[in-house]
Amino acid sequence: MPWLITKYLITAAVVVVVSEVAKRSDRLGALIASLPLVTLLALTWLYIDKQPAEKITNHAWYTFWYVVPTLPMFLAFPRLFIRFGFWPALGISALITIVSFALFAMAVRPFGIKLL
What we know:
Helix content: over 70%
Radius of gyration: 17 Å
Structural class: mainly alpha
């Protein structure tokens, strides 16, 4: 249990650092947020928890494919926010991500990549 709490605290600290840095610098906050910090932590936790190499490598592999369909949301959100406000923009962005993910999953399936 102490190890689980440690993992929670370290992972939460990353999110807090990103949000605090973003308050001071848009660019630096975005740069830090764009780094695969959560993935690196997850890979580290999996390794420390003695998960098999296949599980760790699969996590990295699928993370790449799951990131791609999230990218349209980052392009749409700024415009949506200006036009509709924060909460509607967030909701529409989530829908864009879901649709993008479904379309992307169908597009890569013929290449043997099964995301759904």
